[in-house]
Structure prediction request, 187 residues.
Amino acid sequence: MLHKQALIEQLTNGCIEKGEVKPNDFQPIPPRYQEDGFAKSLICRAVLVSFYLNLYELPGLFKDKPEFEFSMHDYDRFATIPMQLEQMRKSEDTEISQRATAILMDYAEFEQQLNLSVSNYIRSHNDVCLRVVQMMNMQSSPESIQNALAELRRIQGEIENGAKKVEEAKASAEETNNSEETGKAGG
Prediction:
């Protein structure tokens, strides 16, 4: 049981992908986490053929920096294994049937625990309160504050230019009115 739990803890991160959220101009948004179904299928098949059936070795899995060496080719090569186990479970030979049943039941428990671990990881990392705190931290970084100040200065400049144009237009309109009034008074 401890070995299975350690394996699940080691593999959970490989079943998760970060979904980058498109930020607006100057408010960074923390990533959103979701399940990577493809990676999870690959991982589950690798566990079945390596840890349950000893048909494949994953020597780099328990290193400090885990290495997962199970390719799509390997996945395809072992594609029929679950079906073969299911057929063995239905065998009339009780020893074969019992072993296949034990493997399938333990593997189903492994998958259930992995699904729960992935779900808990996603739920905890996508928690609204956590994301709000992360967003506030991201927005209060020196770079974010500099970007916000630069944006503020740009907007202030546009407002000042707009105000100057309005003043110039008013002055031009007053001159036109004054010259028209002078022309009418003189005529």
Observations:
- Residues 2-138 form one domain.
- The two ends are 107 Å apart (CA to CA).
- Helices lie at 2-12, 37-52, 72-77, 81-89, 94-125, 128-139, 142-186.
